[in-house]
Specification:
Helix content is 51%, strand content 20%. The chain is an alpha+beta fold. The structure holds zinc ion (ZN).
Length: 90
């Protein structure tokens, strides 16, 4: 499978999130949640800074998406497919 320009753009953003996490003292991982070529949310690993082992980049992105769009909206969007989650190094 060939990476598209969009794939590279989203992975670049996930990597930027991972660098921010690392600079803060967390594991260097980032994630983006994308639907229809639109960014729903991004996230970073926050396990060390929050003292919570569940705060992976993916869960952080999901929490941010819920906070921004609401659980009903996100559940509906995810349910109908076509979503992509890009995680860098997690
Ligand atoms: Zn993870």
């Amino acid at each position: 499978m060939q990476a598209t320009d969009d794939d590279l753009r989203w992975m670049s953003l996930a990597l930027r999130e991972s660098r921010e996490a690392h600079a803060r003292g967390d594991w260097p991982t980032g994630a983006v949640l994308v639907k229809d070529r639109q960014l729903l949310a991004s996230g970073q690993n926050r396990q060390n800074s929050r003292g919570d082992v569940t705060v992976h980049a993916e869960t952080d992105a999901l929490r941010a998406a819920f906070a921004e769009h609401g659980p009903d909206y996100l559940a509906l969007r995810l349910r109908w497919g076509g979503d992509r989650v890009a995680a860098a190094g997690d």
